[in-house]
Design a protein that fits this description.
Layout (H helix, E strand, L loop, with lengths): L12 E2 L1 E6 L5 E6 L2 E5 L2 E6 L3 H8 L2 E6 L5 H9 L8 H5 L3 E3 L6 E3 L4 E14 L2 E13 L18 E4 L4 E4 L16
Antiparallel strand pairs: 1-11, 2-3, 2-6, 4-5, 5-10, 6-9, 7-8, 9-10, 11-12
Bound molecules: flavin mononucleotide (FMN).
Flavin mononucleotide binds next to strand 3, strand 5, helix 1 and helix 2.
């Protein structure tokens, strides 16, 4: 085994797109890889200091959507262009924006699935950022991405993950097993 010094190589990492409104209702988006499920109805995201955190300070509601092969370029763009100094970042991203039905935050219609969220807790808050814990208020899924059982079909979405080793995006592939089930073979 080769050893490497400690770094942010937890694998695989999501490509979350966080949607917020500023105090005037102007939409913004940023890319975040350092996030995950916190509890059954809550998520967590490690946030630096961004336009997004400015927006959350005045309006603690946001959306989280999951980047796909089809939305990759603009998803990466909102990870390198801040709304703080790129006021036309949403025009450049080119997404269709609607207000979310249950929170005061934008939905980007090109993405298959979106969580509507409300800030619950900011842990270790400082001027460099904080760890955000947020309640999932509601989940939206484009009807084109539903499976036969009526639930979201993750395989259809062409989701991408972030590779923090080589800074690439990798498209997810096919389902290859059944969770809480295949392991029973060894019971
Ligand atoms: C692949 C990738 C992952 C990122 N992950 C995070 C993250 O987890 N947390 C964070 O604070 N910033 C992260 N960023 C940086 C922000 O997306 C970036 O600073 C963005 O421009 C902030 O936008 P805003 O100022 O408009 O909110 C990531 C960027 C990229 C490209």
């Amino acid at each position: 085994m080769k050893s490497f010094k400690s770094t942010a190589w937890l694998l695989p990492q999501p490509v979350l797109i966080i949607g917020t409104y500023d105090k005037e209702g102007k939409p913004n988006a940023m890319n975040a890889a350092w996030g995950g499920q916190w509890d059954m109805h809550e998520i967590m995201i490690s946030l630096g200091s961004h336009q997004t955190t400015d927006n959350l300070a005045v309006n603690p509601e946001f959306t989280v959507t999951f980047a796909t092969a089809d939305t990759l370029v603009a998803s990466d763009y909102v990870g390198i262009a801040s709304g703080r100094n790129t006021p036309d970042n949403m025009q450049k991203a080119g997404w269709t924006i609607e207000k979310a039905p249950n929170v005061n935050a934008p939905v980007f219609k090109e993405f298959p699935m979106t969580l509507e969220c409300r800030v619950k807790q900011k842990i270790d808050e400082s001027e460099t950022g904080y760890f955000l814990v947020a309640e999932i208020v509601n989940i939206l899924c484009d009807e084109n991405y539903l499976a036969e059982d009526g639930k979201p079909d993750v395989e259809k979405m062409k989701l991408i993950t972030f590779d923090p080793v080589h800074h690439t995006y990798i498209q997810l592939g096919k389902s290859i097993g059944n969770a809480f089930a295949d392991g029973k073979q060894l019971k």
